[in-house]
Write a structure and sequence with these properties.
The chain is 79% helix and 0% strand. By secondary structure, it is an all-alpha fold. Among the domains are: 65 residues, Tetratricopeptide repeat domain (Serine Threonine Protein Phosphatase 5, Tetratricopeptide repeat, Alpha Horseshoe), CATH 1.25.40; 77 residues, Tetratricopeptide repeat domain (Serine Threonine Protein Phosphatase 5, Tetratricopeptide repeat). The chain starts with a helix and ends in an 8-residue tail after the last helix.
Length: 275
Amino acid sequence: MLIGALEQAEQDFQRALTANVECMACYQSLAEIADRQGNTEKALSYLVTAKRKAPDDPEILFQFGKVCLERNLLEDAVPALTKAVALKPDHEQYVYVLGSANVAKGNLSQAASLFSRLLKKRPQDPILQYAIGAVYYLQGKYPEAESALKRSLQAQPDQVAASYYLGLTYDAVGRDDEAVALFRDLLKSHPDHGPSCVKLGGILLRQHEYDEAQRLLEHAVSLDPGSVEAHYQLGLLLRRLGRTADSESQFAESRRLETERRTQADIRLRLLLPD
């Protein structure tokens, strides 16, 4: 929908809501429009009101949980999505997003159970194979991760995320040559995938391929100046090259970003008071 059409739709729903403050469809539609406009804070404000008025509506709970997940408000996302799934256990989108929220929260066993449940219905689905493969990787179940991620890529070869996690899996078990080949191939088609630049740069650093590693790590920092790992790996490389002052500068930035990340996590508050 074009920007003008979204703005017109927003005005129409605002008028409808003014005429009827109990119009749940208005709150949901206004939240969806705000989300599509990239304003998740505004979307959440509509959904907070809708959830208070209709606390057992599964679609409102789902939308609320999904926007909370987008905003990294996990303490609110998981309970809302869990309740939505309890109300509509066969709704596959609800189950998938709840699985994703559990991954973000670190509830890996619960996430694996949810994705496995969906795979029983759609065993060839490449996205589901990727999702459970990523969870297996995070659990340290590397053979299972490799199998699932390969199945995902066989069904849908040009997947950045599945390729990246397969590369991580190879790296985790010491299969450096396979990891390097995979990351190089991924970066040929997606040269600005920062996480792959960091991982490939780190492996090449271990292999003393300093020129290519430096190019990749500097590119990773330019793509994402907030990457803790990119600054840290670049610091290691510069120390190897004898550039002590530059190395310490990168380490200092990595520490600063890590402290900032911890602080943000510590001050993250629940959006709502307990029901």
